[in-house]
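Lab notebook: predicted structure, single chain.

Context: the supervisor wants predicted structures on file for every construct in the current expression panel, including those that have not yet been purified. This is the next one on the list. No modifications to the sequence; it matches the entry in the shared construct table.
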Amino acid sequence: MEESGDISIGIVGLSEWDIPEGQIGRGLRLQTTRGPIDTIVHHDPAEPCNRGIIWVGGARGGLDGPAEGLYKSLGSMLSPGITSMRLDYRKPGELSECVMDTLAGVSFLTGTGHTDILLVGHSFGGAVVIKAAPFSEYVKGVVALSSQTFGATDVSNVSPRPLLLIHGEDDTILSPQCSQTIYDWADEPKEVIYMPGTGHGLKETSKEVREKVKLWIIDHLYLPGESPE
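Prediction complete. Output recorded below exactly as produced.
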């Protein structure tokens, strides 16, 4: 059971669900005390691992992420070796509920042997993962893409976990100043990257964003000398 103030969430069961056409991975529905959460998991059961990532979307939810399906592509690319859970909110846009959903995902991964977990969120989801990270010792780092500032004021609590912020310089929905402000609020270790000619969805530099996120994940989930080529 994960708790935050007067709200809590617990997993009471698991079931399969049929993922949409064109998707890849395993559809896993977390039955929780606050309702069902649909996820897509990338995991090779023949390759036990202790590394995991939870990917969450913006205020409208969704499973694929920005940068032309970043979550889908990296979730598949990093498996085996890293288990990825792409999580679709029960109540998109409601910050506390989405934080609870993310923590339910953390509970699932920790309950299946994952001890090193990263959280990745886009836009509204950036604030979600910043808010969720301090609630679990198993969360080892946070990536916030095109993040909003609302809900991220306590970002200093993410430390000593590393924080990566990426923002498009031409974002007209959430100004790149949002990530700069979060960076200024945050304690070390922290890093902010601005992508030139890039909007809120990080589409224009999707390949570069994908590579930066992938390398950051590998650097922070693998011990020196064991990183995949």
